[in-house]
Amino acid sequence: MTKRKQSPKALYIHIPFCTNKCYYCDFNSFVLNGQPVDAYLAALEREMERTVKLLPPERVDTVFVGGGTPTVLTPAQMSRFLASVKRHFPVSGDAEFTMEANPGTTEADKLQAMREGGVNRISFGVQSFDNRLLERIGRIHSVDDVYRSLELARAAGFANLSIDLMFGLPGQTPELLEGSVERALALDLPHYSLYGLKVEENTLFHTLYERNELPLPSEEDELAMYVLIMNRLKAAGRRQYEISNFARPGFESRHNITYWRNEPYYGLGAGAHGYAHGLRHVNIKGVQPFIDAAAGDLPRLTEEQIPDNEAMEDFMMVGLRMLDGVRNADFAAQFPDSTIDGVFGTVLRPLLDAGLLERVEETDGYGYRLTERGVPLGNEVFGAFIAVAES
């Protein structure tokens, strides 16, 4: 059995509720006030029941609860939700169980419910350590909320903690970013994610951008910010294991690595994506439409069988995001009788000649990875693999 035909060992669950909508956010999220949260959790459990009947799991090694802001659930709702996950999925004893959180939404009783429900990793959406910048991007937490939330999480027994920071924000300079990075590193966390702003459609920032009212940093400044991030985090002992992610050894996000290796995963909840047995699905996005659909069947918006050539391209584009790169042995495990060189030789040669990729010889074969020069130009590399594999 090829890896593409195996049952997923990774589970993503979407909680679409937020306290407010940030100005840059195009995620499938809805302001909490007035939402039928309990009815949503009931619909989510019905989706769990049908999913495990359709695609029985052998073992789940990673769980990731994203949003939205999952920690807007009350402690009672949190306990109910996590109990339903355990009831339907065989989560392994050493699983990585991540929940996204916003600073200011994790009081002690909620953290206790999370611990008791199996959560052992929290990813906080901090974004900046500058209160004025937080206000400018529509965040409602303060820097003090960040410190308090991390203190409470540690007191509750959480050691595997991560924070997200953003760069390329309106009005942000390399000097402002450096201040945030320094304060973030002073927290001595095992994992950091740092993302460049993308102005997405259907956001307030896109509206402002179209009006020429969004004062974004220059491309030169944004590149300088990214280089600053890489240098500072590496100097602090956090290995860059993916384009945007840095960790102490052993604290890399196992769940996200599943995505970057193009391996199967369950996707549940409103707007969630899933990928298993070569079939990719997207769930219905609206809260009430999701609830209504789950009453009768799996709440699917779309389903499509991914042909091998497209899956091969995905393998390269997401796999090369990891600084260890892609291995031909892993490629062959997903696509028997095929090799990276055989499928992508004509794409690889110019990237190698340009010094953006390098070939790596290993005991069980070979692989490719970004060079130091290629890391800041990753999007150029990834785009080279679009629509080139033959059907």
Write a concise synopsis of the structure shown.
Strands 9-10-8-7-6-5-4-1-11 form a 9-stranded mixed sheet, with helices on both faces. It contains 14 helices and 17 strands.
Protein traits:
Arc Repressor Mutant, subunit A; 391 residues; 3-stranded antiparallel beta sheet; alpha/beta; globular; 14 helices; TIM Barrel; single chain; 9-stranded mixed beta sheet
Please state the structural category. Answer: alpha/beta
What is the residue-mean pLDDT, rounded to a whole number?
A: 95
CATH architecture verdict of the largest domain? Alpha-Beta Barrel
User: What is the makeup of the main sheet?
Assistant: 9 strands, mixed
Put simply, the count of helices is 14
Specify Rg, calculated over alpha carbons: 21 Å
Shape: globular
Poorly predicted sequence stretches spanning 5 or more consecutive residues: none
Q: Output the CATH topology of the largest domain.
A: TIM Barrel
CATH class of the largest domain: Alpha Beta
Oligomer: single chain
For the termini, the CA-CA separation is 21 Å
- How many E strands? 17
Strand content bin: 15-25%
Helix content: 25-40%
Strand order, largest beta sheet:
9-10-8-7-6-5-4-1-11
Number of domains: 2
Corresponding CATH superfamily of the largest domain: Aldolase class I
Description:
With 391 residues, the protein is of the alpha/beta class. The protein has two domains: 3-260, Aldolase class I (TIM Barrel, Alpha-Beta Barrel), CATH 3.20.20.70; 324-383, Orthogonal Bundle (Arc Repressor Mutant, subunit A), CATH 1.10.10.10. Helices cover 39% and strands 23% of the residues. It has helices at residues 37-54, 75-88, 108-116, 131-136, 143-155, 174-186, 204-210, 219-235, 254-260, 287-294, 308-319, 328-334, 340-353, 378-383, and strands at residues 10-15, 17-18, 30-31, 60-67, 91-101, 121-127, 160-167, 191-196, 239-242, 245-247, 266-268, 273-276, 279-283, 300-305, 326-327, 357-362, 365-370. It has a nine-stranded mixed sheet with strand order 9-10-8-7-6-5-4-1-11, with helices on both faces. Strands 12-13-14 form a three-stranded antiparallel sheet, with no helix packed on it. It has a three-stranded antiparallel sheet with strand order 15-17-16. The chain is globular and about 55 Å long.
